[in-house]
Structures are given as structure tokens and as C-alpha cells.
Design goal:
By secondary structure, the protein is of the alpha+beta class. Helix content is 17%, strand content 30%. The chain has a single domain, classed as Jelly Rolls, CATH 2.60.120.10. Bound molecules: fe (ii) ion (2 copies). One fe (ii) ion binds next to strand 4.
Length: 358
Amino acid sequence: MTDTRRRRSAEDYYAGLPEFDVAPLWKDLGNLLTREPKVKAVPHLWRYEEIRPQLMEAGEVVTAEEAERRVLMLMNPGLQDRPAPTRAAATNMLYAGLQLVLPGEIAGPHRHTPAALRFIVEGSSAYTTVQGERTLMEFGDMVLTPNWAIHDHGNESDEPMIWLDGLDIPLVNSLEATFFEDFGDDPQELTKPIDASARTLAAGRLNPPEQREWNKLYSPVVNYPWKQTEQTLKNTAQDTKGTPTDGVIFEYTNPYTGGPVMPTMSCYIQLLAPGMHTEAHRHTSSAVYHVARGSGYSIIGGQKIEWEEKDTFALPGWAVHEHVNGSSSDEAILFSFTDEPVLRALGLYREAGRERQG
Ligand SMILES: [Fe+2]
Ligand SMILES: [Fe+2]
């Protein structure tokens, strides 16, 4: 059979392709296979001093129904052209928000496949119940509400409570694997003593026999209490300045595996000795940092982020970063959560040292 078609111009050829739902790879290669990650999230600081008044005002303007989710989401300016399900993001795959729970308010039991953690910023004695175990939360506590675990919370104290929420929503929405289920307004039944897991698993190396039956991908600990965390940091800081890139740093772990607290997010706490200036490095994982104690600055991708107590800032993936404790007398303590477990599980975690930027 002879080919009687006339050869079309390249322009006509390209213009005709979308009709067949195909596209030429050779035109797009540079966008698809980049030499290194093209990161759209930008380094960014959310100053508590500015956000807190906005959050408190939300306490006045939202209705009782909306109050269950009185959260100001931390929106990374580099990601605002994304579609809605992934736009609410502090870094590429991490969501962060500041939540206010006023005295007397409760949120009914529910569960969702995106995993969540909360780091307590202000207030004391509000509760979260996870799978029948209630915990009373204080400043600096780190509480897990993992994938599909039923949780509810309430504030029976007489002061407002504010915490930082960390979730893997952008990741789970990208994977189109989000499910949500509601169980009404009444708090869930308590089936375990208050703070049982924090007490039983406090040592981190003495585990009860139930560890053999634990088949979840997440840590059995509901609350990692600040008192223990801070004490461990301070005790260790007496002996060492820690690692060159992060100072004295600890990962919160699942005591049954020694691995990260949840399969999609890992949490860290680090102490920077007075005056410490860490070595610069970068990694493919991104992180959201929250300043638990002290003040200083970080240089992220060449940008100086000056932080104070209770500020939150975004470290985009592959951005070179170094941290500086601005005080010559006081320690600085940074909490962070990262998407590192996802990158590690998929063989995509990379780390590299760099020259300092400042
Ligand atoms: Fe929730
Ligand atoms: Fe780092």
C-alpha cells in the first residue's frame, strides 16, 4: 500500500495530537526528568505574634458548628497555584495548621486516612482521646492521631488551647486515598486508663508483651510528654553538642520498632546549644519547624528566617539550610515534622552537605 498522505508541517502535527490524548515526550523531557528536584514550596515563616490574634478572632466570628475545626492553615506561598485538595500545604507533602479550642468546646469522634499529630503550643489540660485512651495535653506534648484511628477532643479547662496540627493531607490527597468517617457528637468511650501508653511505654526500651500483637504501622504511644522530651534533651546537652547539622537531636519513635511514629511522617526535637551555628546541608525530605524554646535564625535556600518562640517555618525539600541559636546564654529547642519516612521507604531519600550560606 502506498502512502498517499502529504507530510504535514511540524506545527500542524503537534496541533493535531491532543485530539488523540497523546503528547510528544521529546518536547517535555526537561520538565519530567530534571537534573535535581524542582521544588515549588518556598522557605516561609509564620510569626506567632501575627497569627495568634487572627486565630483568637476566629473564636469570635465562627459558628458553633464550624468551631470544631477552628484552624488557620499555614499556606506556603509557592504552592498557591495548586488545585484545592493539595493547596493547603506548608511544604510539598505536609499540611500544617494552628488550631484553637476554647473552654467548653468539644470535637466529636471521627477518623480519617490522613495521619495527624499535634504539638501543644499554649494552654493545658484539654484532652484528646485516641482509640479509647485519653490524654491530658500540656505545652510541648506531641500527640498522635494516626491513620484511621478514632479520635476526639475537648477543652474542659478554663483557658484557650492552641496546638500545631501536622498532617500528610497533600500526600494522601495526591494518592487519592482520603477517607473520612464521623461518629456523632458524644465523646468516645474510654477503654483504657488516662495516659496509659505514655506511662507504660515511657522507657522506650521496656515493652509489654502486647508489642507482639501490634499490627499497626504507627506508634502505640498517644502522647509523648514534654517533661520527658525536654529532660532527655537537657541531660544529653550536658554531655555533647550533638550532630554538626542539627545539634542534639532526637527522633520520636515507635517503641515497638524503633522507627518513625507514623509511616508517612516523622517527628524530631532538637536542642541548639547557646550560640550554636549548625553546618549546612540539604535533603529531599521537607519539614515544618516549630520553635518550642528560644530564638535565632535559619538560613534556608539563601533566605534568612528569623524565628522566635512559638513561630513556625517551612523547610522545602532539597533547600540548603543551617540553624543558628541567636542567644549566647539560652538554649533553643526546635520541634519538627517531616515526610522523610515516605522518601526513605521509596528509595528517594538523599542528603548532601553544603557550604554555609551565612
Ligand atoms: Fe481529626
Ligand atoms: Fe536538615
